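Q: Convert this sequence to structure tokens.
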Amino acid sequence: MKLIFLGATHEVTGSCTYLEAAGKKILIDCGMEQGPDTYENEDLPVPASQIDLVLLTHAHIDHSGKLPLLYQRGFRGPIFATRATTDLCDIMLRDSAHIQMFEAEWKNRKGKRAGKEEVTPLYDMEDAQGAISCFVSCEYHETIWISEHIKIRFVDAGHLLGSSSIEVWIEENGTEKKIVFSGDIGNTNQPIIKDPEYIKEADYVVMESTYGDRSHGPRPDYMKELSDVIQRTFDRGGNVVIPSFAVGRTQEMLYFIRQIKEEKRIKGHEEFEVYVDSPLAIEATQIFMKHMFDDFDEEAAALIEKGINPISFPGLKTSVTSEESKKINSDEKPKVIISASGMCDAGRIKHHLKHNLWRAECTILFVGYQAIGTLGRAIAEGTDKVKLFGEEIEIHAEIAQLTGISGHADNEGLIRWISALEKKPKRVFIIHGEDRVAEGFAERLRKEKRLNAYAPFSGTIFDLATGEFIKEAQPVKIDKTKNMSPATLKANTVFARLLAAGQRLLTVIWHNEHGANKDLAKFTSQIQALCDKWDR
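A:
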């Protein structure tokens, strides 16, 4: 009965924790790292083909983005998630695969002219579709037995449509333990989705700490702040460009703008247009509409009962094709442009930044977290120029931030969440926070709440039965791929796929241990023939 911490340790992205108990090998989240990596992450302790199942807290790519890679490496087990998370991952994982393939193709097109080695995408659309086929949809508060000795339950984390904290009960060798994985804990009083639910008991807690060092402050008047930005920008004749996460934050912006339009807060530009320029955001908005009757909060539900769509309004326009996207900036009329990605590192937002950053009449409005090392963080912190598509762009646009709007609980929200436990857990593991934030929040829990809190590094192993560490890993800041040539990296990637296929074959062999002799003999002959072909 042990936990191994793999990803989002002293970092904000790449969530992944391994749980081995009652004969099952389980992953909680399998996320992609976004932005620069500070520390090396440990690999899975077993081949992907030996992972029995995945528990997914929510659809954001830093929690789900490596599921296609897991599938590519041989995983074929179930992925348990809420209904809305399942629907969102259907589009988000396909979009992620598209990005991987597009970027590899773009690099190869440029690299070929320069005589560089071919780049291989991390995974492709077939891998994404394979991962999507593994999803098992679950209801909130439904108790699900995933084996004779393990049961789980999803409760609403209030962070994103379908987001959850996951309760896991394990019985092994007469010992029963309950572990809670917080997922990303939501901010209270967010538009559209419900507030986070609180959990009353746990033996162990694995908890996020994204905003563990700061407060969002008093709840701001979002309507006024957003209205003021739009008004002064339109009065200057400029565009308001909003880099926004396609799932969650985009829908919140639409919710606010619908109300602004309804209340006629923008004077002299009442019929202004709003462009959502992200195919993913458009699909995600449709999924929000699909789940609005079950998963929206009371305020949004009240609008629905009146026949009002909370995230739609006159003047809302969407662009799907690249041609439609290009036309947005050719129109000189002031407008709001909402585009992904939220941290400006990929997607169509980079094109809109190229067309608007240099214009003093425009505003770039940040409405979400900007990770260290991302383009969005650099712009938000005041850099005076950036390079986009090989061109240096001077920044003259107004740079603004919508204060206090966050899908994450702040430090006080995190304290409220952990304080809801009626009995102190044996230990609280702090993950999903920048280095100093995770350490600082763990220290606060130790001092203020007298909790046994600890921020593990990747590779830390903890025995849940004995309550002792098997291994306390130390941080490793070395970039192992730093000095590798493109050819070596490509070879490593391709060989990793081959090795994973071999490991999966071994797993399949063990699964057939008690098969019929006739079938086993046929299987053996097929393997031998394959070996004869490739043994050289």
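The chain has three domains: 2-215+407-471, 222-401, 486-534.
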